Amino acid sequence: MNGTNSTTVGRVAPASIQHLSNEILLRIFRHLYFENRLPRYWVYGTTEWKDEELDWEDCDLSSPTVFPYAPALVCSRWSRVLSEHPLFWTRVVIAIDDDERHRKMVSESLSWSKDRLIEIEVVRRSYSHNKDHAGETAMVNQIMPCIVQHLHRCQSICFKLIYTSSFPDLRKWFRGDASSLNSLELKSDIEDQTIVDRPSLSGSKDRFRFATPKLRNLQIDGTNFHRACIIRSTWIANAYDLSHITIDAPIPSSSPQKVCLRTTLKVLSELPHLSSLVVRGLTFTAPRLNGNSQFTLAARHVVLEGLGGNAVAHFIHALDYPRDICITRCSLAQVSFFPCRAVTLEDIDEEWELWPPLANSTITELTLTLCPGFNDEILDSLTWVGPKGTEVYMRDL
To answer: Residue 147 and residue 157: Cα distance in Å, rounded?
Structure first.
């Protein structure tokens, strides 16, 4: 033995993430899960929430990094650990243009969520507008059988596609009991279909049964509103809690689609708890307005945008004293008054006289943006004729 001290250092095997135990992996996944969840309501001093008090955080669902799909695709072991906890799979993201490996996981994730309530998001990885219409429709039809099997436990369903023609036909796919559904949204970029089907109601409407007693939010394009809510109106009339409706028209790729205004007002008037109504870009067939409307809308917050003809006048006459109304890029033909105290007018062409409807209203808050027809004379008249304390906000007139 020599006189010098010696220390033998053993060789340490390189560490690998695969050496993490299932318990450690689960802790990591639970941390990622709660990183993607936000409290539905913030309460001062609260630091912990029950899972039912949390919502999934908004994010780019077309991204390949969405939890839990990104870690589940790393390896079979990670996927197995994640699959054993239904809590992770309550948001089901279906990218219809994914490869076969991702599409297989969609079916698996629906089963992994067990009997929990789920949110379904149907998206695309690519939103290039040069895609084939029929191809997108075929991809949607391919995944719909998976969705309808779990319709009874869906809390929300949202489609975000390119073409309106790709939306699933509610009359074909959405049948039976959707007793937990509180939000249904059909979003697209381009209107590419026409309203051509006007089937007879006799003997056919009873075959379309879609029960949504808890539905509160509906966003839909004009064509599908006509098909699913006007032609087959029984289900929406029985959606007693429906309080938020958005009916819009994406960018038209052909001639504008015309929706019957009278039947639209009739359907909306049958919703006693309607609170928020947004109507954008639709072209209505509407008769000349004579006297009061035969329909009454309960909506308290109203947004009308891009409506021509006398559609705005028909809506105004049907409203039962809403709290506020915002009118943007609309025709004011036959508009003789505004039925609420808070009115916002944006980008109203100067051909429409603003003074007559303003003079006949009891507005206390008026906001105007890009309204060249509003001038100093009208402002002075409001001071003398309008209700006392009227606040006027003007921008870029």
So the answer is: 9
DSSP assignment string, 41-73: S--TT-----GGGEEEPP--TTSTT-TTHHHHT
Give 267-288 pLDDT, tens digit per residue. 999 999 999 999 999 989 877 7
Q: Give the residue among 126, 125, 161 at the shortest CA–CA distance from 144.
A: 161
Q: Which two structure tokens, joined as six digits, stand for 64?
A: 């390949």
pTM of the model: 0.85
Contact indicator for 327, 344 with CB cutoff of 8 Å: yes
Q: Name 247's bridge partners.
A: 220, 279
The DSSP line for 141-194 is HHHHHHHHTTGGGEEEEEEE-SBGGGS--HHHH--EE-TT--EEEEE-SEE---
Beta strands in 269-384 (DSSP E): 276-280, 283-285, 301-305, 324-328, 342-346, 365-369
Q: What residues form DSSP beta bridges with 74?
A: none
| Single-letter residue type at 45 | G
